[in-house]
């Protein structure tokens, strides 16, 4: 397994990031629109064709106490659809606090002049997806 693509599922946007297992590095990649609860599957298909990932990760938004919430169900549904459409392995990754950390990273990038304000919302979603990959890398594997 070499290339990993992660999705930070949201009701309006899905942040996408790409990672390399060899280097254990991840980078923000793109943002996919969600309209009327339907992801832009054509956009996702283009990204998958271009990057040819070996594994897909989907952030699982859990409550602070670890319990599931409404968005957890939606993220699970999205993960199942990814697996069904593309026949790639999909893993769910606990994404508690990734959006908060992503917002801090983007705010600091804006303050330092490295990011335009108009791109901030999309960037938060992409950075959150990169953090999902990084947390997957950080988990011990047997």
Explain what you see.
With 142 residues, this protein is α/β, with parallel strands linked by helices. The chain has helices spanning 41-51, 70-86, 98-111, 120-138, and strands at 3-8, 13-20, 25-35, 38-39, 55-60, 90-94. It has a single domain, classed as 2-Layer Sandwich (Nucleotidyltransferase, domain 5). It contains 4 helices and 6 strands. It has a 6-stranded mixed sheet, sandwiched between helices. A hairpin with a 2-residue loop joins β3 and β4. It is globular.
Short description:
With 142 residues, this protein is α/β, with parallel strands linked by helices. The chain is 43% helix and 27% strand. The protein contains four helices and six strands; from the N terminus they run E-E-E-E-H-E-H-E-H-H.
**Average pLDDT, all residues:** 85
User: What overall form do the CA principal axes indicate?
Assistant: globular
Q: What's the CATH topology label? A: Nucleotidyltransferase, domain 5
H and E string: EEEEHEHEHH
The low-confidence runs, each spanning 5 or more residues with pLDDT under 50, are none
Instruction: Calculate Rg over CA atoms.
Output: 14 Å
Number of strands: 6
Number of domains: 1
Number of helices: 4
* Share of residues in strands: 25-35%
Name of the CATH class: Alpha Beta
Helix content: 40-55%
CATH superfamily: YqgF/RNase H-like domain
Q: Please identify the structural class as seen in this structure.
A: alpha/beta
Spatial order of strands in the largest sheet: 4-3-2-1-5-6
Largest sheet composition: 6 strands, mixed
């Amino acid at each position: 397994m070499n290339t990993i693509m992660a999705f930070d599922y949201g009701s309006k946007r899905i942040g996408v990031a790409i990672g390399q297992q060899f280097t254990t590095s991840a980078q923000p990649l793109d943002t996919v629109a969600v309209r009327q609860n339907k992801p832009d599957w054509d956009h996702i298909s283009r990204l998958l064709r271009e990057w040819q990932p070996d594994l897909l990760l989907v952030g699982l938004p859990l409550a602070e106490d670890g319990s599931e919430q409404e968005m957890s169900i939606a993220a699970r549904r999205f993960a199942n659809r990814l697996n069904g459409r593309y026949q790639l392995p999909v893993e769910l990754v606990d994404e508690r606090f990734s959006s908060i950390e992503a917002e801090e990273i983007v705010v600091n990038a804006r303050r330092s002049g490295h990011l335009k304000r108009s791109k901030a919302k999309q960037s938060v979603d992409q950075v959150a997806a990169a953090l999902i990959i990084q947390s997957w890398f950080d988990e011990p594997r047997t």
